[in-house]
């Protein structure tokens, strides 16, 4: 059984930084692509960033490009999202998602395994 757990969310002031983490078990971590998505109140869940199996390739939503960095440590079975220059509009529940394959994707239906999410709140 695949288990996905996010951590590291919290409250931060606008302009600040935060790093969220995602640990996954029940899969061969080093062979699967992973992604971050977020859902703000009253809005649909949206793509944030994705990374391929090795960490050699990443993709970002335009809204976070240049501010957020996705990375992974396959030895620790953990993925990260470093968020800098945070804005109030980044406030959302952030979800980690895991694919069955190694190539990264932006589309939510490409990810069969999801965590419960971690709240990130950016105050103005």
* Radius of gyration, CA atoms, in whole angstroms: 13 Å
Helix tally? 0
Could you report the average pLDDT, rounded to the nearest whole number? 97
Q: Which class of secondary structure composition applies to the elements?
A: mainly beta
Separation of the first and last Cα atoms: 40 Å
- Portion of residues in beta strands equals over 45%
The backbone outline, from C-alpha atoms, is globular
Low-confidence stretches: none
Describe this structure in words.
The model has no long low-confidence stretch (mean pLDDT about 95). The chain contains no helices and 11 strands. The protein has strands at about 5, 10-15, 20-25, 35-40, 45-50, 60, 70-75, 80-85, 90-100, 115, 120-124. The protein starts with a strand and ends with a strand. The strands form 2 sheets. Strands 2, 4, 5, 6, 9, 10 and 11 form a 7-stranded mixed beta sheet that branches. A 4-stranded antiparallel beta sheet has the order 1-3-8-7, with no helix packed on it. It is mainly beta. The chain is globular, with a radius of gyration of 13 Å.
Give a brief outline of the structure.
The protein has about 120 residues and is mainly β. It contains no helices and eleven strands. The chain is globular.
Fill in the keyword field for this structure.
124 residues; four-stranded antiparallel β-sheet; mainly beta; single chain; seven-stranded mixed β-sheet; 0% helix
Helix-strand layout with pairing:
Layout: E1 3-7, E2 10-13, E3 18-25, E4 34-39, E5 46-51, E6 58-60, E7 68-73, E8 78-83, E9 92-98, E10 113-114, E11 118-123
Parallel strand pairs: 2-11
Antiparallel strand pairs: 1-3, 3-8, 4-5, 4-9, 5-6, 7-8, 9-10, 9-11
